[in-house]
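Practice problem 4.
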């Protein structure tokens, strides 16, 4: 029996990772001089299982909630909720709220620090269920900084996602901030 289990496990091991070509680059944006208040990806194609945003960004305000996303231009705060964990090397904190569209897609930072973030929007075309959003982000500021994991971004809407807005909470997304959208097969 043990040999059969080993053979079975070796047969399925290749199915547990994403093969080359599993991500297709759909669009990229680099923020120009002077910054912008928001970045929008519109006309998102169907044909993928999930979407992934990857970015290296900074806001000019340096506040605790540096930025958020809106899906399909929806500004109804009751359609969004989240929970997240933060760690800074010496302490940890958690936050959760219904009716919160911040999605914590940009961690708190200073005006001289960029943060790196990956956001997954799961089952973005499935019209039979609400959407789940998860993100991992962080930044380093010469030995201090934050790592943030948001595992429960929630969008209470069954419409397929066709537009993503990334918005600075105050101030602008600064020059050289880079955003990329990928389709996940």
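Answer key:
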């Amino acid at each position: 029996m043990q040999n059969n289990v080993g053979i079975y496990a070796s047969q399925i091991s290749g199915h547990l990772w994403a093969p080359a070509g599993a991500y297709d680059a759909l669009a990229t944006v680099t923020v120009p001089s002077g910054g912008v208040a928001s970045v929008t990806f519109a006309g998102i194609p169907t044909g993928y299982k999930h979407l992934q945003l990857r970015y290296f960004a900074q806001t000019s305000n340096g506040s605790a909630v540096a930025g958020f996303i809106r899906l399909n231009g929806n500004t109804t705060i009751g359609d969004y909720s989240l929970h997240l964990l933060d760690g800074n090397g010496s302490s940890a904190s958690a936050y959760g709220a219904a009716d919160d569209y911040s999605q914590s897609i940009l961690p708190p930072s200073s005006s001289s620090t960029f943060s790196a973030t990956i956001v997954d929007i799961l089952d973005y075309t499935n019209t039979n269920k609400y959407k789940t959003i998860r993100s991992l982000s962080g930044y380093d500021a010469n030995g201090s900084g934050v790592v943030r994991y948001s595992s429960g971004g929630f969008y209470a809407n069954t419409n397929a996602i066709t537009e993503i807005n990334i918005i600075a909470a105050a101030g602008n997304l600064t020059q050289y901030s880079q955003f990329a959208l990928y389709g996940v097969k």
